[in-house]
Amino acid sequence: MIVSTNRFYSASFFNTSNFLSGSLNQFSQNSTNYFELDQINDQLALENAQLRRQLAELNYEKTIPPIIASNYEVIPGKVINKTYLRSANFLTLALGQDQGIAIGMGVVGEKGVVGRVKSVSDNFTTVVSILNPGVMISSQVKRTGTLCRVQWETNDPLTINVKDIPRHIPLFAGDTIETSSYNGVFPPGVLIGVIEELELTQESPFYRATARLSVDFSSLSYAHVIINQAIAEKDSIESIIIDEL
Q: A GO BP term, please (predicted)?
């Protein structure tokens, strides 16, 4: 045989064999490292979400009475499906009833409001995003505390309409729009966007304004479900007075 009887060819064969073996081992190691890196990235993202949750709780404690701050729980989840270019948009999270999620809960991202929980299974949640004309959120102008509401009628995934700001209120491009304390879904002060365009006609009692959304839905990969632990008590006490009126 050539390999066993010819010294030159024998050396060439084993050198080539060692090279191929080393290359295959390196390819196998690179593949293993790639999948391990993907798992590490997922773990880091979850850890970051947990750290943001702890930081948010600390920030709430600085600005909100402890009895209010303690009413909110934040549960992070990975976005596994989403739309943002349709006339009505949604996303799916990899968490569900087993993690305490229920229909109607608010959902936020790292940079602001995302939407509300629409449906839930044991391990998955669908969310109607703020990029949906049927979603209206009680809001306020941060600088003045003026109540307003936001509703997506721009058909632009980067902007949203801001409504019901009275004409006597000074409003400027660059004003921040955030959630108000008049809804039980989101904590007050969660960022929604920044006023980008505004118009006030002579006959209109309200501004026509649009805000640039703080959340970029095209790159949204993680979201956080907000659980208001006091909402049941609040609804119960309010239902009594409503029934009496």
A: regulation of cell shape
Say if residue 112's pLDDT is above 60.
yes
Q: What's the rounded mean pLDDT across residues 12-31?
A: 51
Tell me how far CA of residue 40 lies from CA of 47, 75, 106, 128, 224, in angstroms: 10, 20, 28, 29, 20
Q: Is 188 exposed, middle or buried (0-12, 13-18, 19+ CB in 10 A)?
A: middle
pLDDT in tens, 178-235: 999 887 789 899 999 999 999 999 999 999 999 999 999 999 999 999 988 777 676 6
Q: Specify the pairing of strand 159-163 against strand 112-120.
A: unpaired
pLDDT higher than 90, residue 102: yes
Among 141, 146, 134, 84, residue whose Cα is nearest residue 109:
84
Ramachandran angles phi, psi of 9, nearest 5°:
-70, -35
Closest CA to 109 of 230, 235, 219: 219
What value does the mean pLDDT take over residues 76-86?
95
